[in-house]
Amino acid sequence: MAPIYDNDVLTGYVKIARDMTQQKQAEEALAISEERNRVALQSANMGAWDWNIVDDVVQWNDQHFQLVGLSPGNQSLDSAFFAKFVHPEDMEMVMGELAKAVVGGLFQMDAFRIVQADATIRWMSGYGRVVESVDGVAKRMVGVMYDITDRIAAEKGLRDKQIQLEISQRAARVGVWGFDLVNMKGIATPELLELTGYLDPGDEWRLDIFLEMVHADDRQYVHRAVRKAAADHSGIELEFRMEHPEKGIQWMLMRGQFIPPYDTVNASLMGSLIDITDRRIFEEQKDAFIGIASHELRTPITSIKAYAEILEEMFAEAGDLNSSGLMHKLDGQVDRLTELIHALLDTTSIVNGKMKLFPTKFDVNQLIYEVADSMSAASSHQFEIQVSDEAFVFADRARIRQVLTNLIGNAVKYSPKSDKVIIDAVTKDNQVIVCVKDFGIGIDEEIQSMIFDRFYRSSDAQASTFSGLGLGLFISSSIVLNHEGTMSVTSVKGEGSTFCFTLPQLT
Amino acid sequence: MTAKKKIILTDDDPGIQDAVRLIFERINYEVIVFTNGEPLLNDAFETPDLFILDKQLSGVDGLDICRYLKGRPQTAHVPILIISASMHIAKLARLAGAEAFVEKPFKMRAIRAVVERLLQTSESKKE
């Protein structure tokens, strides 16, 4: 506003009004935007730089000073000052990229090293852009720099681990496989390809191709195990033969685990494959030795047994009952020796998956009566049998008899102060469930899961007075498992145990 | 008095030869022992009432001898019992034509029972 004078007399005002709102708003918006950028840069620990190329004047924000290991300041710097902090080995590359950016307009460096004021080396990533140019000549460039040392270290760690893993897989000759359960295909490591000798590197791992490599006799068994692991979301551990195109039949140990689906990735099975051919050869030699040894042992045992029985008969005929009784005991010990040899042979064949089954159709209930009958003569226990109509199965009768004999024998052996054993059989959900219940010493809860292991024998002071190799339950549970059944135990210490096994019912 | 029943035992182990002889002589059988399969394969024997053959003889498989005897008209009708320390060969023995199989070691009562059953069956066929 301005006064108007006419000969010193105020005659009026001139008022000029200009609308400043837009400018004010723009200034405020700029201030907010700058503040936002500042906060963003600060929180991301990002250094910002502004380079006046014409005058070679550089400005840094506080973070940029910190990134090179200096306290924040507001002095003007130049490009040579920045260069002081670039690692000598990366200098040529960084300066070259900056020079290119002056012409091309864009500066981008994924990783370079900065030597901080205290000589600490840090990895940085940088990005910048020309923001002012006249006639195509860059005048000013702005950009950011940020610390990626942790990421580089993590990547290096991962790479090192990867290399270590690859080296150890190579050294241990472990192949790693995996396939998703929707497409039935996936990954295979070079070791796996080498082990199987079929696929070319780069070929995808497919279940159908893999199964074709498996020995024809083992194929169904392997396929079934894979399907079971996929259906039950469980693991796999099995030994089988593969046909190697050059080396012939190779024994493999395959282990695997179900991996549930995540994000967009399908559920899969992943695992390892190891060549165990050498081990199997040793095992076969060992089995052959046990086979020959046990065969050779049986011959003199046959004679000893016959002599004992003949003598028992002779003493009995002569009325010398003391001597015939002793001979009877001798005969009993020979039987025990025979049983031990049987158990060793059975264990060998179970461990090697060579237990042969000769299944026939029979009624389990009838077998229970037979076994109980034959065992009752030599036992002071009463066998109480509770069975329903009939329970037919398709199984190896001699083997199931062996299981029943073992369970009833254990029931008698571990209940010296009781005189009753209950044997019952029921059919339920297409299963025949047979249980043998005793009222003996019982089994501690914490060892109940271990008693089906090979060579497991109770370390309990009371239980250790009972003899045996500790193979009986291992053999019995293996027989049941080979029939696709299950075996379990429930027991209360001091009250008794109930062992149950199932067999698929023949309907 | 009826004539003693005659058994030919072929086993290469002296212990088994002695034991089987004792087991059956005590119940009034005559036991002729061959230590290998040659006399049987050369027809150098008198036809017995029953053969007991060890499966694993030195040089020759007892099952082969079994097949030979079953293929020969003079001995085809004579019951054969295979004895062996190998398990699970009952089916093989049956396929070779043997009437019975007993695993070593056996119970005296059991092997006597098997032999008596075989002889009874054989006897009833004759009648």
Detailed description of the structure:
The complex is a heterodimer of chains A (507) and B (127). By secondary structure, chain A is of the alpha+beta class. Chain A has 13 helices and 20 strands. Chain A folds into five domains: 1-43, no CATH class; 45-152, 2-Layer Sandwich (Beta-Lactamase), CATH 3.30.450; 173-275, Beta-Lactamase (2-Layer Sandwich), CATH 3.30.450; 281-351; 360-504, Histidine kinase-like ATPase, C-terminal domain (Heat Shock Protein 90), CATH 3.30.565. In chain A, strand 5 and strand 6 form a beta hairpin. The longest helix of chain A has 41 residues, at 277-317. In chain A, 24% of the residues are buried. Chain B is of the alpha/beta class. Chain B has one domain (5-126): Response regulator (Rossmann fold), CATH 3.40.50.2300. Chain B contains five helices and seven strands, in the order E-H-E-H-E-E-E-H-E-H-E-H. In chain B, strands 2-1-3-6-7 form a five-stranded parallel beta sheet, sandwiched between helices. In chain B, strands 4-5 form a two-stranded antiparallel ribbon. In chain B, strand 4 (56-57) and strand 5 form a beta hairpin. Chain B is globular. Classes of the chains: A alpha+beta (507), B alpha/beta (127). Chains A and B meet through helix 9 and helix 10 of A and helix 1 of B.
- Strand content range of chain B: 15-25%
Question: What helical percentage do the residues of chain A reach?
Answer: 40-55%
For the record, the count of structural domains of chain B works out to 1
| Strand order within the widest beta sheet of chain B | 2-1-3-6-7
Provide the domain count of chain A.
5
Name of the CATH superfamily of chain B: Response regulator
Secondary-structure-based class of chain B equals alpha/beta
Pick out the low-confidence regions of chain A: none
Q: From the 3D structure, determine the CATH topology of the largest domain in chain A.
A: Heat Shock Protein 90
Q: Kindly state the percentage of residues in helix of chain B.
A: 25-40%
What's the β-strand tally of chain B?
7
Average pLDDT over all residues of chain B:
91
Q: Which segments of chain B are poorly predicted (pLDDT under 50) over 5 or more consecutive residues?
A: none
Mean pLDDT of chain A: 86
What is the chains' assembly state? heterodimer
- Please report the two chains with the greatest interface, counting residues with C-beta closer than 8 angstroms to the partner's C-beta: A-B, 21 and 21 residues
Shape field of chain B? globular
Rg from Cα of chain B: 13 Å
Gross morphology of chain A: elongated
Number of helices of chain A: 13
The major pleated sheet of chain A works out as: 6 strands, antiparallel
